[in-house]
Amino acid sequence: MAAEKRVVFRSAWLPWALLAPQAAVIAVFFYWPAAQTVLQSMQQSDAFGTSVEWIGLQNFANLWDDPTYLASFSTTAIFSILVAGFGITLSLLLAVFADRVVRGTTFYRTLLIWPYAVAPAVAGVLWLFMFSPSIGVVAYALRMVGFEWNHLLNGTQAMALIVMAAVWKQLSYNFLFFVAGLQSIPKSLIEAAAIDGAGPWRRFWTIQFPLLSPTTFFLLVINVVFAFFDTFGIVDAATSGGPGKDTSILVYKVYYDGFKALDLGGSAAQSVVLMVLVVTLTVLQFRFVEKKVNY
Amino acid sequence: MVERRPALGLLAHAVLILGVVVVALPIYITFVASTHTAEEIVQVPMPMLPGGHGLDNYTTALLGGGPGAGSTAAVGRMMFVSLVTALVITFGKIAISLLSAFAIVYFRFRFRMFFFWAIFVTLMLPVEVRILPTYKVVADLGMLNSFTGLTVPLIASATATFLFRQFFLTVPDELVEAARVDGAGPMRFFIDVLVPLSATSIAALFVIQFIYGWNQYLWPLLVTTQESMYPVVIGIKRMIAGGDSQNQWNLVMATAMLAMIPPALVVILMQKWFVKGLVDTEK
Predict the structure, then answer these.
(1) What's the total number of domains in chain B?
(2) Which of these, A140, A103, A160, lies nearest to B43 by C-alpha position?
(3) What is each CA distance from A240 to A9, A74, A255, B110, in whole angstroms?
(4) Nearest CA to B202 among B69, B97, B70?
């Protein structure tokens, strides 16, 4: 595909007019605030914005010395590893079996994809309701088998709750990509292996799984991005970062410190750290795209 | 299917059915809870079959004013706010991205690639990383608690611009030449040739962006403080205020069902474009 058109239109003003709306939106609502964030991360101001002091990298040094921030980092790391791990494993399992069935593929697909449409915050509310220690159905069932569930007191259980809600929400997305990935593996490869006497189990590990590795890697990045940035609604609705700070992931902490605790400089410094993370993840994601083209 | 293994086929169906059941369970429980009275739900364990108060609950939720410790605003109004927000974001994104991609692909001008990259880099600046200053801009512009504030800051789209650019590059040059011969100017060509050709991409983006717009949470949480401007996703969260016994879970669950129906319908009815949209926007 050519990166340039050979035949183009000529006009001195039209392209500028066409670009104007998008350029205005990104300038006012993306670049200006992003620049402000970087500036604020090097300033210290009181909650009313009356005094502003230039303090260089002090906010970042404070973050580094702040045990709650480091704890939030490890909370986020654990959360995203669990979400990506469980999400990818379960959806791969479902996709492999969906690839096997001859009849009913569309039926299963339809029933498996729609959680994509559920808002993260709504997903959080649904899982909260099922696992509510006093009235939740699942909490009740767990109690019947002798397992005491109370995510309001137990940080590990609160983490389990948001992981389940996030995996449930992201399952459909992973599933669709794995189904597409499996369909793109040539049937002749599988048939040749079958003739050579390789059973389904062996074929999966020696052919399908290795050939799916680009998809798996891509989904790994996407799931980590999802766990980092798109799960704010789940956390806010299901646990509000609690108990204590046990489920306070980075994005939740930025919001809390900025809007509830009104620590502008600290919140801005956290935003800058997040910005660096997004850039890293996006670059990783595009590295993958280049690889896929050559593949 | 490579070989006949009835046992494995059976296992495949069993696993898939189990998957479907687990995925559907939260929705089933939500639906059941939305058809009982609040008193019936707080009994442990709550009933597992639908009850007879569905109509009452949905009417109360939609019209508002029901009992409850949290917000009791009318969900009907919230659904309207969500719908307008989602549609403005969707069509706004599609429209300004079509225009930008058209400018970048079909014209030569200074800073062309600069604009392309400037739009592209916004992909790396989600709301979460610039939350306070963006809020401040919107507040300074007097856009809090308005549809403009809910939608315009989210309308830029790197993915849509990129997708349309990729698509425009595949459109044969002969079409431009033919349009020129027929005396059509750039805008005529854009409206009569390029936009109709992009119909599939537009449909695919519609599904993805509609869901994106409808499910927004963090941004509306910041810019709306009046009940009349809550989208339904925020409304649900505001309804949960007290402990488990004070919440009107029947109404919360009815609202959750209402909040899920429009995007779920879009995904299911436009399944073909949804899958295409997902695959295309992530490339």
Answers:
(1) 1
(2) A140
(3) 54, 17, 11, 49
(4) B97
Q: Do A289 and B236 touch (CB under 8 A)?
A: no
What residues make up the domain containing A224? 82-294
| Cβ contact, residue pair A237, B156, below 8 Å | no
pLDDT of chain B, 283 residues: tens digit per residue: 566 777 888 888 888 999 999 888 899 988 988 888 877 877 777 787 887 777 888 888 788 776 766 667 788 888 999 999 999 999 999 999 999 999 999 998 888 888 888 888 887 788 877 888 888 888 888 888 889 889 998 888 888 898 899 889 888 888 888 888 888 888 999 999 999 999 988 998 898 899 999 999 889 988 888 888 889 988 888 887 655 556 788 888 888 999 999 999 998 888 888 877 777 776 5
Range of the domain at B120: 76-223
Distance CA A139, CA A135 (A): 8
Cβ–Cβ under 8 Å, residues A264 and A40:
yes
Q: Is residue B46 part of a domain?
A: no
Upper half-sphere CA count for residue B84 (Cβ side, 13 Å): 14
Mutate to test the interface with A, among B128, B190, B222, B268 (most CBs of A within 10 A): B128
Residue A249 belongs to domain with CATH number: 1.10.3720.10
pTM of the predicted model, to two decimals?
0.88
Whether B28 maps to a domain, the answer reads no
Decide if A246 touches B, using CB distance below 8 A.
Answer: no
Q: From the list A102, A232, A259, which residue is nearest B217 (CB)?
A: A232
Cα gap A71→A245, rounded to integer Å = 8
A:B CB pairs within 8 Å? 300
Report the DSSP beta bridge partners of residue A45.
A52
